[in-house]
Amino acid sequence: MNETPLLSAVNITKTFAAVCALKDASFDLCACEVHALVGENGAGKSTLIRIIAGAVLQDSGEIFLDGEPVRENSPSLSKSRGIAAIYQQPALFPELTVAENISIGQDCGGLFGRVDWKARRRFAREFLDRIGAKIDPETTASELSMPQQQLVEIARALGANALILIFDEPTASLSADDTAHLFQVIRELRSQGVGMIYISHRLEELSEIADRVTVLRDGHTIETREMAGTTREQLIRLMVGRDLSAVFPKRKVHIGEVVFELRGLGCRAAGIKNVDLAVRAGEIVGVAGLIGAGRTELANTIFGLRAPDSGEIFLRGQPIKIGHPCEAIDHGIAYLPEDRRRHGVVPDFPVSANITLASLKKLSSFVGFDFGKERAVAAEYTRRLGVKTPAIYSPVSTLSGGNQQKVALSRWLMTQPSVLILDEPSQGIDVGAKAEIHELMTELAEQGVAILMISSELPEILGMSDRIAVMAGGTITAILDREEVTQDKILSIALGN
Questions:
Q1: Do 83 and 194 fall within a single domain?
Q2: Do 292 and 203 share a structural domain?
Q3: Which of 98, 402, 403, 418 might form a disulfide with 332, Cβ 3.0–4.6 angstroms?
Q4: d(CA 154, CA 495)
């Protein structure tokens, strides 16, 4: 590594309203380095990279590029200085071709200002080849898969002469094969002298791809160390400030009578067929399976997003009909969906409105809506679930992923459900927030709530479930007790063995 870092952030402080997002935080990046930046949601990672990228200006502290102080910054200035960010959701123009997306902002014009399409295609092909991306430059961006879109963004950044790349949760939506290819690209870029900041909640990835790691906690830089020899347990301890021996705080809970039961449930539109399942009071039933097995589709059918066309649903032994989410809610069934940004919260609504959205009847009377009661209820749930927010009237979009998940969960807890369906409850949140969500699940089970938990993380399935239902081909193919199950056994059944 060079003696002078490509980038240095020194004693950065940033406050939003009454919340101090960063306090004297420091970070540096060298050429030919992948430097991981980790911390719980709300630790200050996003604020720091936004300051580096010029989207936000720090209150105090300094940024240095190649040892020279950055006096002014903005997104365009940051880009001109060779800094580019690759976010979890690629930001391509969907109706433009790959070549057009890569060439945006570059001088690929011809005589008299005409567009030189051949030059644009050559330009795009050069940088796609540099990262080993087998993508036709004439392909429309909307036709690309998520991994392909990420590669195009990387090629676009390199085409803009980027020497510093920021990867923000790049593997969150990628398969194992796509992740392996991305890591290959990152290693190649590192060998070409590019410095990369790598942010991920998947701590197990860091030993494979990172050279150094910096831990942030509550806006402070806790420690920077070599990744070699650093364990996942050590990182967790630095991130949360304590030993986190129980990410899955499962306790023995009294299991009561059957609360919720499916008998031969089917929905042709959702690809669900002949599902039999019972969930008892205080029980957490995990639903495992491969992508496409029908787990989310089953949840949608139970909640009335897709009306079932065969079979029966029973609540405390009585048959019920659910053809719409309102009917599910009226029966005491709550559903926390997988994609919280699209379906879990309303980003532009304040925290208070998001929390009360499913319980408006409770806050309304013949004289109108009780806004004072809404504020009181929202304050109570943010306190109860430990939601970190400047105020209950702050837009949910300003909160971290883990806090958005808590707001979405608060909405359904306010309905006082007897059945709670959780689809990927800890997806995209850090280990500290995961432990808090799991602890809350255990508390709800102790209160007698019947919980159906869908998860792609087998450690979560094994750590939190009393029983595990394995799905394949739109139906449940096996139900296993906690004591008899292993990861290998779940995978074997999910694969049809």
A1: yes
A2: no
A3: 418
A4: 34
Does 215 share its domain with 293? Answer: no
Contact 106, 159 (CB under 8 A): yes
Q: What does 203-225 look like in DSSP terms, one character per residue?
A: HHHHHHH-SEEEEEETTEEEEEE
Q: Whole-structure pTM over 0.70, yes or no?
A: no
CATH number at residue 54: 3.40.50.300
Q: Tens digit of pLDDT for each residue in 36-69?
A: 999 876 788 989 999 999 999 999 999 999 999 9
370 backbone dihedrals φ, ψ, rounded to 5°: -90, 90
- Same domain for 215 and 264, yes or no, is no
Last residue of a domain, one of 180, 211, 240: 240
pLDDT (mean) for 17-23? 81
Q: Which tens digits make up the pLDDT trace of 429-484?
A: 767 777 888 888 999 999 999 999 999 888 889 889 999 999 999 999 999 998 88
Minimal CA–CA distance to 284: which of 422, 440, 453, 417? 453
Q: Are both 186 and 325 inside the same structural domain? A: no
Closest CA to 98 of 117, 121, 118, 78: 121
Per the listing, tokens 């969906």 go with 337
Could you tell me if residue 423 is inside a domain?
yes
- pLDDT range class, residue 134, cuts 50, 70, 90: confident
List, in order, residues 6 or more apart from 159 with CB less than 8 Å away: 102, 103, 106, 123, 124, 126, 127
- Cα 14 versus chain centre, distance: 24
pLDDT in tens, 354-381: 999 888 888 888 888 888 888 999 999 8
Alpha-helical segments (H) within 341-456: 351-356, 371-385, 401-413, 431-446
385 and 291 share a domain?
A: yes
How does residue 1 score in pLDDT terms, banded at 50, 70 and 90?
very low
Q: Which of 194, 213, 240 is the last residue of a domain?
A: 240
Q: Are 397 and 386 in contact (CB under 8 A)?
A: no
Report residue 15 CA to chain centroid gap. 24
Instruction: Report the Cα 328 to chain-centroid distance in Å.
Output: 26
Nearest to 202 by CA among 223, 183, 226, 219: 183
- Neighbour count for residue 29 (Cβ, 10 Å): 24
Total of domains in the chain: 2
Q: In terms of residue numbers, what domain contains 487?
A: 258-494
Strand partners, 97: 140
Contact between residue 22 and residue 44 where contact means Cβ atoms under 8 Å apart: yes
* Residues 386 and 422 placed together within one structural domain of the fold: yes
pLDDT value, residue 244: 47
Q: Is residue 124 part of a domain?
A: no
In a domain, 248, yes or no: no
Measuring CA to CA, how many Å separate 313 from each of 324, 336, 479?
Answer: 14, 19, 18
| 193 plus 289 within the same structural domain | no
Q: Which residue has the tokens 């936000």?
A: 56
Residues in a beta bridge with 471: 289, 476
